[in-house]
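Weekly sync, protein design subgroup
Attendees: M.S., D.O., the rotation student, P.L. (late)

Item 1: inverse folding check
M.S. brought a backbone from last month's batch and wanted to see whether the design step gives back something sensible before we order anything. D.O. pointed out we never logged the input encoding, so this time it goes straight into the notes. Structure tokens as presented (150 positions):
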């Protein structure tokens, strides 16, 4: 078992008895959660378009920054749908260790969107910080980064 699989399995065991935590949960909550997250992450793309628009030069660097934010949003939305689907199936299968093991294996087999999301968020954050420090763009007005500009 890889170290990633151990981390995922350990993270899923934070709740001592997941079947008790999810027992009695109405099944409609899981697709609603997936829908709200997907809508929220899709709408966040408008904010990233605003950041892209704030670049003084619309060159390759600014397009890479926007692509990283876009890929992170899409990857995060897809992975949230996977996670909430697993919760739905866990409750529908009646819980227990066999359901937990099956869905843990499913999540490990479909972890590419999570990895893509994490990698792209890190790249976006680093590239956007470089953009601000090199004054290729200004940070959003809601951000207090005055310490960067003496």
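Designed sequence read out in the meeting:
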């Amino acid at each position: 078992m890889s170290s990633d699989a151990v981390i995922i399995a350990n993270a899923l065991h934070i709740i001592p008895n997941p079947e008790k935590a999810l027992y009695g949960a109405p099944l409609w909550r899981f697709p609603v959660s997936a829908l709200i997250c997907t809508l929220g992450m899709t709408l966040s793309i408008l904010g990233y378009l605003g950041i892209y628009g704030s670049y003084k030069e619309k060159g390759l660097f600014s397009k890479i920054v926007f692509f990283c934010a876009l890929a992170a949003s899409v990857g995060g939305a897809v992975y949230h749908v996977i996670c909430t689907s697993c919760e739905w199936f866990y409750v529908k299968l009646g819980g227990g260790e066999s359901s937990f093991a099956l869905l843990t294996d499913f999540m490990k087999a479909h972890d590419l969107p999570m990895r893509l999301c994490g990698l792209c968020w890190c790249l976006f954050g680093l590239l956007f910080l470089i953009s601000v420090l090199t004054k290729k763009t200004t940070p959003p007005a809601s951000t207090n980064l005055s310490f960067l500009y003496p």
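Discussion: The CA atoms of residues 5 and 11 lie 10 Å apart. The chain is about 70% helix and 0% strand.
Action: P.L. to compare against the previous round before Friday.
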